[in-house]
Amino acid sequence: MWMLAVDTTTKNASVALARDNEIVALVAPRSEEQHSVQLFRNLEQAVAQAGLTLCDIDVYAVANGPGAFTALRVGLTVVKGLAEMHRKPVVPVSVLEAVCEAAHARGLLIPIVNAYRGQVFAGVYEKREVEITSCAPERVLTLPEFLTALRAEGIRPETCTLVGPELSAWQAQIASSPFAFARREDVSPVLADAVARLGARKFARGEAVDALHLEANYVRRSDAELLWKQK
After folding, report:
1. Does residue 221 belong to any structural domain of this protein?
2. Strands 22-27 and 59-63
């Protein structure tokens, strides 16, 4: 089974090609180009490395959020279009779950991703062997608000690991929080390979959807929705 995985939820857009759970190609150029400009080139480069074309892909996996609205929509729109064109299934994957997949740590993991505007997307997951289970709704808050809420909900710093691609940027806020002495692990901002591995397991469990039912997991409403709500 050939799976093509896409992550455009952050500035570090990436594409991975996997065959039967093995990563065959990973394309993650460091570029200032917009995702809408580079994504098709990255997709074609990934499949070309295996001597394939997009027609040969059996299933797609895509990080469906949370993430930056415009970047997130680029990946979803492209995957949705390809899946519909070739009549292939799609596996949606949470980027926070992908962060946990990319981490070496096991046990209770607290994935943290930059949501900009001074906020983070964050969640609580349990990772045992290769199984990752969500333990709480994903949310968007300032990091101090989120960590304070975790402690109030009974999560003890010594029992968990904070994981994320930009933890060093939040060092001061973590140090002044109840989780100052919690374990931490930085992960790569390139997540398409983690999306592919998760996608393969989810596909095996029957968690794929067709292109029509692929939806974004925004967590936070868009500016347009917020402005409309205020009127």
Report:
1. yes
2. unpaired
Among 3, 132, 138, residue whose Cα is nearest residue 65:
138
Per-residue pLDDT tens digits for 161-185: 999 998 989 999 999 999 999 999 9
- Based on the fold, state whether residues 109 and 180 are members of the same structural domain: yes
Total domain count, the chain? 2
Tens of pLDDT along 109-135? 999 999 988 999 999 999 998 899 999
What the block records as the tokens of 119 is 């906020």
Rg, C-alpha atoms of the chain: 18
d(CA 68, CA 35): 12
Closest CA to 57 of 8, 4, 13, 101: 4
Buried b (16+ CB within 10 A) or exposed e, 162-195: bbbbeeeebeebbeebbbeebbbeebebbbbbbb
Q: Are 198 and 168 in the same domain?
A: no
User: ω into residue 66 within 30 of 0, thus cis?
Assistant: yes
